[in-house]
UniProtKB/TrEMBL annotation:
One of its GO terms (molecular function) is aminopeptidase activity. Coiled coil: none annotated. This is Proline iminopeptidase. It comes from the Bacteria. Belongs to the peptidase S33 family. Keywords: Aminopeptidase, Cytoplasm, Hydrolase, Protease. It catalyses: Release of N-terminal proline from a peptide. The active site is at residues 117, 270, 298. It is an enzyme of class 3 (hydrolase). The lineage of its organism: Bacteria, Bacillati, Actinomycetota, Actinomycetes, Streptosporangiales.
Amino acid sequence: MGLREFYPPIEPYDSGLLDAGDGNRIHWETCGNPDGKPAVFLHGGPGGGVVPPFRRFFDPAAYRIVLFDQRNCGRSLPHAGDPSVSLERNTTPHLVADIERLREHLALDRWLVFGGSWGSTLALAYAQAHPERVTEMVLRGVYLVRPSDEAWGFTPGGAAHLFPAEWAAFRDAIPPDERDDLVAAYGRRIEDPDPAVHLPAARAWMEWELCANTLLPLPPPDLDDATVLAFARITHHYIAAGGFLPEGGLLAGIDRIRHVPAVIVNGRYDMKTPPDQAWDLHLAWPEAEFHIVEDAGHGGSEPGTLNRLIEATDRFAVR
């Protein structure tokens, strides 16, 4: 059997805005078979939003596929591309509560949980909070949001060694006297109300975030100012707060989900979430199936990674 590929493009058969309280409305959509096995897709970022290819990791004849834009991004409201929108009520516990509220709204008893990058973080947090609602898990590009994981991305000793020109552009957008804490320096600029300040900072932040997404470089996406600002604001908000995770992080809660069938997939050359994070999750959770893809980086659509992910959703479709 050859490598599995994305399922064909598909459009939602239902969608809406879910009132999540605090003035937040969460955009959701459902695709595939209305009577199929429920699965929820958790996008990365945080702040990345849902795009059409995310629907295609699942057999549309077998799955009822649920996707949603996390708070303040994508089509959810209010949108963080407006610098006046507060992110105070955008934390991991809020997102976990949104997922559970959406499950109840759709009258689903249990569902498969699929997440990549930040989506893997949120998937683990949700499953540990509501293990009785999770049938299986598929995790890609594991992101544990530990201090060492953040140091890899935002200090000179990590990914900067592999992307020196891109790191120099990211670093040099900040004056030398503020470079001892680039995350804080960018935060001051991204949250500045003046577009002449926050837009260049947001674009520099996003360019650094995206430069290492795949093993082979891809052209950068053409994104409008509001999308870029929302991504930068939300991503920075979570990184500065250590992901709003409980004391001990996600590995401390593995016993709550140890019984859940799971597949963990990570690219060997993932420069965003290097495979040591997936390996540490595997060591804590040896019951989960573990795969390193030898010819892949961070992207979920890279052929070897995509093959493993769709192999997992195909297999779980008949459980």
